[in-house]
Design brief:
Structural class: alpha+beta
Order of helices and strands: HEEEEH
Number of helices: 2
Low-confidence stretches: none
Radius of gyration: 33 Å
Oligomer: single chain
Strand content: 5-15%
Distance between the termini: 83 Å
Largest sheet: 2 strands, antiparallel
Mean pLDDT: 78
Number of strands: 4
Strand order of the largest sheet: 1-2
């Protein structure tokens, strides 16, 4: 396509803005009506397969393990330890 015939982005976008208008497509199921390409919220079925577990609301709780606190080293202690190592290495 030549540059002269090229549509700008704004022209293309304004034309496509009307593509999404309309009502959603619906499908009749045994339990009622649902949107196409979506799992049935009542049964949890999609294309003949159980996708979502439906039933009694089970509360799933996970307990976090308590965070292990590491001992905090003081800056002065680390300097003393490194100086002791240097002294031992020099002996």
């Amino acid at each position: 396509m030549s540059v002269r015939m090229k549509l700008t982005h704004s022209k293309t976008a304004s034309r496509r803005a009307h593509h999404n208008k309309g009502t959603p497509r619906l499908v009749a199921t045994k339990t009622g009506v649902r949107r196409r390409h979506f799992a049935d919220p009542d049964t949890g079925m999609y294309r003949g397969k159980q996708i979502i577990a439906v039933g009694g609301a089970e509360k799933v709780t996970t307990k976090k393990a308590p965070a292990k606190k590491k001992p905090v080293k003081k800056v002065a202690d680390t300097k003393k330890a490194s100086s002791k190592k240097k002294e031992e290495a020099s002996k």
